[in-house]
């Protein structure tokens, strides 16, 4: 049977991916030129990631859905995630970049296991809740698995990644098994816990009692209130992000005309690429880009809401959450609402690991969505035959 493609999901994915390539070139060209490198170097690399990502989406779309949802695939993803996260700690395999050991290097290929682990967790939760009753006692195994993944990610250290894991598992547990009246209580408890943790970090940092592993977390929490007070320290990047957004105004300075990318905002093509988008394209056009990203999430959530298959619906929900959290955290970070996180903007920031794993997720969504389109076509054809 010929599969139908969900045009909204595929169109949003392709548009933001191609726009991301353009912005990676714009954001990185000055830095590469000043270093004596080819200005199209990162553009070509990102183009390769995008091409491979498109192939991945097409391949997963063509695979039978029953294969993707098989228990062996879920087990493989979870076990591989745990192994990769442990391997990061092995000398020679784990790569230290900017004081954090988050990368794994295997036969010259570097990737972040934390990104892989988050998608694996979504697969696991969707599969787990397919076979158990919707009771609160079924929290145990998901919390154990997510706690183990979060702990391994936290030691890299990647605090935001660990919090994302916990948020995803709690959100999917609530959606699956918690009565509505308890959801508000859990959200309040979660926010309260975050405030307590932040308070402890600030207290320990002020009294010089914070371990070196988490000292950067303290600095980022302190700098978020007024980054210009720490302009030559921990607040430098966020200050430059504010300047870029201010420079852009409503209509921007024009493509390639960013001033902050000219040696002021370090590695602007990664986590802070949206600041460059605002500076060059303006706030109005930036909202269009953001609408495309959030529209992708909204479409996935809509499909999950309309779905009749429990496992497939939960998988759609988890993938939608994965995208939405990354987008929200990145935009909140560059605009000073929360401390800097190191979370890239999906499909736009430079980098292979995040883009390819998100492409896998898009392929899965398109595969599941095609089944719904086939069902709708079948119902329509039955209706036409009934009246013919």
Describe the structure.
The protein is mainly alpha-helical. It has one domain. The protein contains 13 helices and 3 strands, in the order H-H-H-H-E-E-E-H-H-H-H-H-H-H-H-H. It has helices at 7-34, 41-62, 65-68, 71-87, 113-128, 140-154, 159-177, 180-206, 215-225, 236-248, 273-306, 310-334, 352-387; strands spanning 94-97, 100-106, 109-111. A 3-stranded antiparallel sheet has the order 1-2-3, covered by helices on one side. A hairpin with a 2-residue loop joins strand 1 and strand 2. Helix 6 runs antiparallel to helix 7, helix 10 (236-248) crosses helix 11 (273-306) and helix 12 (310-334) crosses helix 13. The longest helix is centred in the last third of the chain and has 36 residues, at 352-387. The chain is globular, with a radius of gyration of 22 Å. The two termini are 23 Å apart. Mean pLDDT is 82; it is low at 384-388.
